[in-house]
Design a protein that fits this description.
VC0802-like, 3 domains, 8-stranded mixed sheet, globular, Rossmann fold, alpha/beta
Length: 531
């Protein structure tokens, strides 16, 4: 009997979950309020549905009305109805008034299950009043840490500070992480950037990882001048003893990093990258950290830091990584398209292409425009072209380019098939110095004839490039250029997020006829003169 009632309740919730806020409020809540006590118990899932639906799509005004209704249900004679209301309140965004109501109920209820739900709700929304209610017996407990982290989030908001220098960095290693296969490009960028300043030195290079050592005081802004890495982390030490990790997290070096690069409360989220979800380990380690240093708070809610526990063999290491809602290097990104390039990959491709003054650049599959923008940010670009078959992609690329504030660079974005490049004014045979692109991979969207598409891509690139021009692109296939005028200069296998791809650099060679005149192949000539 109980099983049948439980299944009926789940089915009711699934049905109500699909209703709009208006339908749920005007039809189902109205019916619930009019119902007799037994029917209210049978339809208690209405309360749960209201909490979820209005949290996801309700307006602020609607949520205020819902909170008033839920507070009234806290006084319902049925413990089950009260319990459902208790669980729904945190989803809506409960505050001081709701906290007071929950604490009042906690003082009077005699039901252990209701006390448990009240405790869970107060962990999520509680503040000073809840801390006072708990008293000294809760000192050092997990609930105290959660409440203090929640208070810190609202009363002392945190943000990453980019401009404050870290002066005492003895023993620190900085980890620049990225996609496997791009580490040598990251290494080259660092070496070229610090050649004069001598502010960092390369310590080690592994797959997807470049470790650097600071040689002088530095800011986060100094690190984010490097555009080719994915994420940055501060390695503050390692141990073979799991119980010693908390001491590393709050070590003097860790504290200096957190305090230097944070405005506001010191909050973090724990991550075990190689071990997946580790709820028990996270709870135990966070509690130990809080015991050692109550000002460093574990908080998943918009925490400005991730503290990763990396493992290699029997060794653990602690890495502190700043979290940004928007990567400050890629400020220009107003919007993205599906399967858009990873911004550091676009930066790596631009750096691989190198710099040439009065550069004319074309991206046949421009998507959101990242490769073109990253190349333009390196300087020396006179004109760039972006083509894509998607009108939405062209619109997004134009907005992103405007956001990059590259007024000195002439740009033209055209919705068309790349094979129709000759229709675009000034985009003609031997007019381009660089073709750079991240073509369709055929993974998310099926390409009926990907090899044929890439064959045409090589042909178009060979047609538009001047002698000495370069082609940089991510090759989704194990195929070489069928165009003999394109000479392979470098190839590296990179991780494309679950599959390998080849990042390649070609140079356009002059083809000399027996009479010494440069000529195009017949297929190049056909494409370039077709229109």
């Amino acid at each position: 009997m109980k099983s049948a009632q439980k299944n009926a309740g789940k089915e009711l919730y699934r049905q109500l979950r699909d209703l709009s806020c208006t339908q749920l409020w005007e039809q189902e809540v109205a019916r619930f309020d009019r119902a007799a006590p037994q029917e209210r118990i049978e339809r208690v899932g209405v309360i749960r549905a209201v909490g979820v639906v209005f949290a996801e799509s309700g307006t602020p005004q609607q949520r205020e009305i819902v909170k008033t209704w839920l507070r009234e249900l806290l006084h319902d004679p049925s413990e089950k109805i009260r319990r459902y209301a208790i669980a729904a309140l945190p989803k809506i965004g409960a505050g001081i008034v709701e906290e007071a109501e929950l604490l009042s109920l906690l003082r009077t209820t005699g039901f252990d299950r209701e006390k448990k739900f009240l405790g869970q709700a107060l962990e999520k929304i509680g503040g000073k009043a809840t801390l006072e209610h708990l008293g000294p017996d809760s000192a050092g407990s997990q609930i105290e840490q959660k409440l203090r982290a929640s208070l810190a989030h609202y009363e002392n908001p945190s943000e990453i500070r980019m401009d404050r220098p870290l002066s005492d960095f003895a023993g620190l290693k900085i980890q620049l992480r990225g996609r496997r296969g791009l580490e040598e490009i990251v290494r080259t960028e660092v070496e070229e950037s610090v050649r004069n300043t001598r502010s960092f030195r390369i310590a080690d290079v592994w797959d997807g990882l470049v470790t650097i050592i600071p040689l002088a005081p530095f800011t986060l802004g100094d690190l984010y001048k490097f555009r080719c890495f994915g994420t940055v982390g501060f390695d503050v030490g390692g141990t073979a003893n799991f119980d010693q990790l908390a001491s590393l997290i709050v070590s003097p070096l860790s504290r200096r990093i957190l305090e230097t690069f944070t405005n506001g409360s010191l909050r973090y989220r724990l991550d075990f990258p190689a071990r997946g979800h580790q709820r028990g380990a996270v709870k135990a380690l966070a509690n130990r950290v809080y015991t050692l240093c109550p000002s460093v708070l574990n908080s998943a809610q918009n925490a400005p830091w991730t503290i990763s526990i990396n493992s290699r063999g029997k060794e653990y290491s602690v890495e502190l990584s700043p979290r940004h809602s928007v990567d400050p290097r890629f400020y220009y990104r107003q919007q993205d398209v599906p399967a858009a390039s990873h911004p550091p990959l676009a930066a790596c491709m631009a750096r691989l292409a190198g710099r040439m003054n009065d550069e004319v650049v074309w991206d046949p599959f421009c998507g959101s425009g990242l490769e073109l923008i990253e190349r333009a940010l390196l300087g020396g670009v006179k004109r760039l072209y972006g083509t894509d078959r998607s009108e939405e992609a062209i619109s997004i690329a134009e907005r992103n380019f405007a956001g990059a504030d590259l007024a000195s660079v002439a740009a033209k974005f055209v919705c068309c098939d790349f094979r129709d490049f000759a229709k675009i004014e000034k985009l003609e045979a031997a007019s381009v110095t660089l073709v750079i692109s991240n073509p369709p991979m055929g993974k998310r969207v099926h390409i009926p004839n990907l090899r044929g598409l890439m064959d045409d891509f090589f042909t178009a690139a060979a047609a538009v490039l001047r002698p000495g021009g370069r082609l940089v692109f991510a090759n989704p296939l194990r195929m070489d250029s069928p165009q003999r005028s394109l000479k392979l200069q470098s190839r590296r296998v990179i991780d494309f997020g679950g599959f390998d791809c080849r990042l390649e650099l070609y140079t356009k060679m002059a083809q000399v006829s027996p009479h010494g005149a440069t000529r195009a192949t017949s297929k190049q000539a056909a494409i370039s003169s077709k229109f």
